[in-house]
Design a protein that fits this description.
Chain A: It comes from Bradyrhizobium aeschynomenes. Chain A: Pfam families: BPD_transp_1 (PF00528), OppC_N (PF12911). The structure holds 3 protein chains of 3 kinds. By secondary structure, chain B is mostly helical. In chain B, 79% of the residues lie in helices and 1% in strands. Chain B has 13 helices and 2 strands, in the order H-H-H-H-E-E-H-H-H-H-H-H-H-H-H. Chain B has a two-stranded antiparallel ribbon. In chain C, strands 7-8-9-3-10-11 form a 6-stranded mixed β-sheet, sandwiched between helices. A 6-stranded mixed β-sheet of chain C has the order 17-18-19-14-20-21, with helices on both faces. In chain C, strands 1, 2, 4, 5 and 6 form a 5-stranded antiparallel β-sheet that branches. In chain C, helix 13 packs across helix 14 and helix 13 runs parallel beside helix 15. The chains are: A mainly alpha, B mainly alpha, C alpha/beta. At the A-B interface, helix 4, helix 5, helix 9, helix 10 and helix 11 of A face helix 1, helix 6, helix 7, helix 10 and helix 11 of B.
Chain lengths: 276, 325, 540
């Protein structure tokens, strides 16, 4: 309860929540407001925003409604961001927990693998994965999740390392608890909050990664994605720069919202830090 | 000397990591639909099965996967990255050609991000919870949320199309045959926007870390000791806080080296820079898997190198590091 | 004490805490004075406002904390109204300070010599060479071994005692009129503490410095103070010449604090059983760190060939300074750590050789109480759940275990109605009682207590120790009691073993070991206890 109160006392955190709710609202309402396929031809190409009341945000090079693409794009961004984050954080917690709790050779092997993933530039790995498995919505989401797990894994491991030697865990062991009990019931509940907060960062990065991939036309071309639209607008950048500008603002807003909410949660859950 | 041996040991420890990456990616690429020969045949506009068989034998693709892997690794040890069918040159030569723009871009983006991240981080921490802090932190958050390729495009619109101050892309003006200083200036002007674009998100990260790290160090006991000695705030920051607060920044450079190299793929594409990142993109589009594998190798090597340098830097900053282990 | 000039006068000083603190004022209307060539001790427990006094005089108050009336007169000036620049000129030059934790009080990235020289650099016009030679002579004054090497060393390369010597050298660099020492020996081992106290005393006498010494330990007061000021909850409850206060304390709180430092003499011996419940023989634990293929490997012999016997119903104290291996030994006994060799016989079974699974099933026989009352309880569980955890793990139905846990609250002197609170809602002493209840819930025969009272205020220590002795009688517990504090050991242990560098150098009945120590190290330890003489003369 205190945490909720602290959260709502921060204007930045509240702003983040409002922005996030707007983006979520766009994603939900897309089907009602723009029931037609957002990638279908809607009108004359390259109508400027506000020039035609039918197309509030104008149309792109091939005459598709930009507003419809923005609304439907919110679905894609949140979907890919959310699922990829879930994948990354789940893998990260499992790897980090095992490495941090057991230490020794298990830690050694798991950390070598983590290091390998971090040494290989994540976007290059993403390119390799897309080159191999193709660029459907599913493969792109999984690929983004796979390149994003090392950071949460390291964080979880660090938490486990410090909690493992904490006296209350030792006390649990002297009471006769098994490793699984110690990991799941004693350490994990204490290690989880910072990792969950960090999920905000993972999601922000995941959304940015997907949009970059889409911009390079390596993501699913059959869905309305903000990155796709920016890539499309690049061809008409000289004059009709708004085709690229509008979806960029949408990405910026979403990533900003996710980061602000994450930071707000962090401050609310770690009140000590907030006083600084 | 101890610093060198320490960093050397870390460097040696990264060799298995490098092999892990190469084996992993090599096996991954075996799953790709079609191999280099397929790509070549497609480029040549098709061909019969006999030619394909011939080509596969020539490129050593007719043997089992483990043998191919062993052959690849053995060639790698001799620094032979194989042959790019698309470019018709050894992969090593293709990569070497593309390396300088990427290195230049990364160095300038990193310097820009590090310098201004440090500066603004310190200013924000010194005025914590007052307006300069709020302003810097807000702008930092917005930078962090900005997709770099979009920022690049918008920068082109503003600075190249409307204001016409800076070139919209390329590494240098091919038309003008210039030498010496003029060539340097020409390249520099081409690198301004890409460096800003690539460095922006890192600037945001560095300034946030620097601010947090400054605030943390300012709370430590030895800062109170410094105050008790009668030092003024400026000297406390320059003599006691700054160096301690820099440590997490240095760690971050190493950790972010890979991310930065990844970011250059997008930025080089936006600004048509003939660098490693753009090469990676092209080789994915053209299914030039040999080149892609070569890029994986070189970029991992680069990241390891950057980490080696940051290890050295860290050890120079922190005398405790050489005492451990 | 001859009549001398007053250096510092604190006059009805109050310090206000920010809103939302547990009380409005950290210090209310405190007055005291310190004369030249005099050591004044401020004594109090945590929350008494004693450290706040030091920070207020230095004007180093945390954000949001402000002075609220009163004056601090130093050399004719009121420090409360001095400008920031004036304060900077005074700090380090006229008033210097030594802190509790010498590791964190020094900048880890700069050399000792550099940090001492900095004081001279900012307050004087001395040249670099002059500063260097002054630093060396200061380091020589504080008896640091090999001053030129120490000047070039970084803080982590020195021992705790040497670091504190360096801090003192830094504080005395400009011959300040007033030295404020904020618990300067609390973080140190007892033998090091004795040396540092001696050093402060000597330097103070040689330089006629006025010293304001802040401590929680009346033993230290007896060792060093000319005059004493006792503080509780931000108010001075008693003050006067040290000997008067120590011998004839007036205020109940002062009496309580003095009672918490009883003489190091064993209580009348209890009859000991001939049956051993726990027998250690030849226990060895060696740590190997770093090193690659045997090169550069560092070997630490944490426990070397320890053999001890715990008779049924007795309390065996294992005493030693940090790094003596006493905590490692405790963790070997309870098998949190696997010993390398030796046997640990409990009820005829060798715990050193049991598998992890076997140990898990036998944890009812032996339980542990931990040192840190904050870290030893899972912050996300209610107190009653913490206590019931053990029985539940061992198969007691949950409801029954919870009901029995509530009964245990009574046993350890806690209000059973508080059982549903979370650990952070309890005080340090109460948490330690919860930890004890958790261990007792499994009805162990042997209790291993690792510094169970070290993290507590002295008055709370006495209560927890009393509880432990009561329970020992009522439940027939046999206890291994690990402590660095010989006073505590003397109060509760039937037998003691003195450890140094992983070896038991002396063991036997507490009365024999403390009454007529045979080993030079035991003698040195006993000698080093602050206020040891006071305790013997005052009590008896």
């Amino acid at each position: 309860m205190d945490a909720a109160k602290r959260y709502f006392r921060s204007p930045a955190a509240v702003l983040g929540l409002i922005l996030l709710l707007i983006v979520v609202g766009m994603a939900i309402s897309a089907g009602y407001l723009y029931p037609r396929d957002p990638l279908a031809l809607a009108g004359r190409p390259l109508i400027w925003p506000f020039a035609n009341p039918r197309f509030l945000l104008g149309t792109d090079n091939s005459g598709r409604d930009i507003a419809a693409q923005i609304f439907h794009g919110a679905r894609i961004s949140l979907l890919i961001g959310g699922v990829a984050t879930l994948i990354a954080v789940t893998i990260g917690i499992m790897v980090g927990a095992l490495a941090g709790y057991y230490g020794g050779w298990i830690d050694n092997i798991l950390m070598r693998i983590t290091e390998a993933f971090q040494t290989l530039p994540n976007f290059v790995l993403l390119l390799v994965l897309v080159a191999v498995f193709g660029s459907t919505l599913t493969t792109v989401t999984i690929a983004v999740g796979i390149v994003s797990w090392p950071a949460p894994a390291r964080l979880t491991r660090a938490e486990f390392l410090s909690l493992r030697s904490r006296e209350f865990v030792q006390a649990g062991r002297t009471l006769g608890m098994r490793d699984t009990q110690l990991i799941l019931r004693e350490i994990l509940p204490n290690a989880l909050p910072p990792v969950i907060v960090y999920a905000g960062v993972v999601m922000a990065v995941a959304i940015l990664l997907e949009s970059a991939l889409a911009f390079l036309r390596l993501s699913d071309a059959n869905v309305a994605s903000w990155g796709n639209l920016i890539g499309l607008g690049r061809d008409v950048l000289r004059v009709q720069w708004y085709v690229s500008a509008i979806p960029g603002v949408a990405i910026l807003t979403t990533v900003l919202a996710v980061s602000l909410v994450g930071q707000g949660l962090n401050d609310a859950l770690n009140p000590r830090l907030k006083q600084r | 000397m101890r610093i060198l041996s320490l960093a050397g040991r870390r460097l040696a420890a990264s060799i298995p990591t490098l092999f892990l990456i190469l084996i992993g990616v090599f096996l991954l690429l075996q799953l790709a639909p079609g191999d280099t020969v397929d790509a070549m045949m497609a480029q040549m506009g098709g061909g019969d099965a006999a030619t394909a068989r011939e080509l596969r034998r020539f490129y050593g693709l007719d043997v089992s996967v483990p043998v191919q892997l062993a052959n690849y690794l053995w060639r790698l040890v001799r620094l032979d990255l194989g042959f790019s069918a698309i470019y018709g040159k050894p992969v090593a030569a293709v990569i070497l050609e593309r390396l300088p723009p990427t290195l230049l871009l990364m160095t300038s983006a990193l310097s820009f991000a590090f310098f201004f991240g440090l500066l603004f981080g310190v200013i924000a921490a010194r005025s914590v919870n007052r307006w300069p802090d709020t302003l810097i932190s807000t702008v930092g958050l917005i930078f962090y949320a900005t997709p770099s390729f979009w920022f690049g495009l918008m920068a082109i619109v503003v600075f190249s199309i409307y204001l016409q101050w800076l070139p919209a892309g390329g590494f240098e003006d091919i038309g003008a045959v210039s030498t010496g200083v003029w060539r340097v200036l020409d390249i520099a002007s081409h690198l301004v926007l890409p460096s800003l674009t690539l460095g922006l998100i890192f600037l945001a990260i560095y300034l946030r870390i620097m601010r947090a790290s400054m605030l943390e160090v300012l709370n430590l006991d030895f800062v109170r000791t410094a105050r008790a000695k009668g030092l003024d705030e400026t000297r406390i920051v320059t003599r006691h806080v700054l160096r301690n607060a820099l440590l997490p920044m240095v760690t971050l450079i190493g950790l972010q080296a890979g991310t930065m190299l990844g970011g250059s793929v997008v930025v080089e594409t936006v600004f048509s820079l003939p660098g490693l990142g753009r090469l990676a993109y092209e080789s994915v589009v053209q299914r030039d898997l040999n080149t892609l594998l070569g890029i994986v190798f070189v970029s991992a090597l680069l990241v390891i190198l950057v980490n080696f340098v940051t290890d050295l830097l860290y050890a120079r900053l922190d005398p405790r590091i050489t005492a451990e282990s | 004490m001859s009549a001398t000039a007053t250096i510092l006068t604190v006059d009805r000083l109050s310090v206000r805490l920010p809103k939302g603190a547990d009380r409005p004022h950290a210090i209310s209307e405190v007055s005291l004075s310190i004369a030249e060539n005099e050591i004044v001790c401020i004594v109090g427990e945590s929350g008494s406002g004693k450290s706040m006094m030091a920070n207020t005089i230095m004007r180093l108050l945390p954000d949001g904390v402000t002075t609220d009336g009163g004056r601090i007169l130093f050399a004719g000036h009121d420090l409360c109204t001095a400008t920031a620049a004036e304060m900077r000129r005074i700090r380090g030059a006229d008033i210097a300070m030594v802190f509790q934790e010498p590791m964190t009080a020094l900048n880890p990235l700069r050399t000792i010599g550099d940090q001492i020289g900095e004081v001279l650099d900012i307050h004087t016009d001395l040249s670099k060479a002059e500063i260097r030679s002054r630093v060396l002579s200061l380091l020589t004054d504080v008896n640091i071994p090999d001053p030129p090497r120490a000047a070039k060393a970084y803080p982590h390369e020195l021992s705790g005692g040497q670091r504190q010597r360096a801090m003192i050298a830094m504080a005395l660099a400009l011959d300040p009129k007033l030295l404020i020492a904020d618990e300067p020996t609390t973080a140190l081992d007892v033998t090091t503490q004795a040396q540092i106290l001696k050093l402060i005393r000597e330097l103070q006498q040689r330089r006629k410095t006025a010293v304001l010494f802040i401590t929680h330990d009346f033993g230290v007061v007896a060792e060093i103070a000319d005059r004493v000021v006792v503080m509780q909850h931000g108010v001075v409850v008693e003050h006067g010449p040290a000997m008067d206060v120590l011998r004839h304390p007036q205020h109940a709180y002062t009496k309580q604090l003095i009672a918490a430092v009883p003489p190091v003499a064993a209580p009348p011996p209890r009859p000991l059983s001939d049956n051993a419940i726990l027998t250690l023989s030849g226990v060895v634990k060696t740590y190997r760190t770093g090193g690659f293929l045997g090169r550069g490997e560092r070997v630490t012999h944490a426990v070397k060939d320890v053999s001890l016997t715990l008779p049924k119903g007795a309390t065996l104290g294992i005493v030693g300074e940090s790094g003596s291996g006493k905590s490692t030994l405790a963790r070997c006994i309870i098998r949190l750590i696997d010993p390398d060799a030796g046997s640990i016989l409990l009820n005829g079974q060798d715990w050193a050789r049991l598998s992890r699974g076997d140990i898990r099933e036998r944890t009812q026989q032996m339980q542990m109480v931990f040192q840190d009352p904050f870290a030893s309880l899972n912050p996300r569980r209610k107190a009653v759940e913490l206590v019931a955890q053990g029985p539940i793990v061992h198969g007691t139905p949950r409801n029954q275990a919870l009901a029995e846990a509530r009964e245990l609250f009574d046993l350890v002197g806690l209000d059973p109605s508080a059982a549903d609170r979370f650990p952070h809602e309890f005080s340090g002493g109460q948490r330690q009682r919860i930890g004890l209840a958790r261990a007792l819930a499994l009805r162990p025969a042997v209790l291993v207590a690792d510094e169970p009272v070290s993290a507590l205020d002295v008055s709370v220590q006495a209560q927890v120790l009393k509880l432990l002795t009561d329970l020992r009688e009522r439940l027939g517990l046999s206890i291994i009691f690990i402590t660095h504090d010989l006073r505590v050991a003397a109060q509760i242990c039937d037998l003691v073993a003195v450890m140094k560098d992983g070896v038991v150098v002396e063991h036997g009945l507490t009365r024999d070991v403390f009454g007529s120590p045979q080993h030079p190290y035991t003698q040195a330890l006993l000698e080093a206890i602050p206020g040891g003489d006071f305790a013997r003369t005052a009590h008896g």
